[in-house]
Amino acid sequence: MDQNIYTFHKFHSVFILPIKKNNYLRKKLLNIIKLEWKLILINEGSLTQVLHSLSGNKLKIQMFQKSNKYYKNIRSIWLEDSLYTKLIFARSMWMYKYINEINNKIKNKKPLGKSIIISQIDILRKIHEINYGYCQYLEYKFQSNIPIWGRKYTLYYNNKAYITVQEFFSPYIANFFK
User: Does the reported pTM lie above 0.85?
Assistant: First the structure.
């Protein structure tokens, strides 16, 4: 599966931390990331549920979907709190040749993590990289002018790569830890 997701907008990385390469460098860089961001970036659970628990607010999802000849679903979402504060921008690409196998099990109108929990399917998440950088469009949407954290990962079901996800996080999320 192509691990490169075009996010529609130029994201300028200050650094990209590849998760599987150079274990020594990865550990060194992980040591400079603040604890609250580590909890978000390397979280293996439902990020929607984690943010709901941290904020105490119900979260809303704005979803946009399209298809092309390689992917059945290209889904972009904004996750925001009840005050319409945008918390996460995510884009997922669902492999066309496997889509029916997993699509029948999960609910497309819900956040991906929540759908997987509800459907009780067993998946493996492989994080490829953690990003830190700038994007004028995302900074505008997040109402922030400081660097943005992001990550890219692939979800596997029955040992097949089904969905590659790229997420970018509002700096506002760090306020939930104060």
Answer: no
Q: Do the domain assignments include residue 82?
A: yes
Backbone angles phi, psi at 80, to 5 degrees: -135, 160
Q: Assign 121 to helix, strand or coil.
A: coil
Contact call for residues 5 and 164 (beta carbons, < 8 A): yes
The number of distinct structural domains making up the chain is 1
Asked if the structure places residue 29 within a domain, the reply is yes
Of the candidates 85, 83, 82, 103, the residue with the CA atom closest to the CA atom of residue 163: 103
Hunting for tokens 């997922």 — which residue is that?
92
List pLDDT tens digits, range 19-69: 665 566 667 767 888 888 988 988 877 788 888 888 888 888 888 877 666
Look up residue 107 and give its two tokens: 């609910």
Residue 164: count of CB within 10 angstroms of its CB = 22
Is the CA virtual torsion 75, 87, 49, 154 positive or negative? positive
What is the side-by-side strand order in the sheet with 160-169? 12-18, 123-134, 148-157, 160-169, 86-95, 71-80, 60-66
- Residue 46's domain is classified under what CATH number? 3.40.1410.10
Secondary structure of residue 44 in the 3-state scheme? coil
Q: DSSP state, 136?
A: H
Please give the span between the terminal C-alpha atoms of the chain, in angstroms, as a whole number: 39
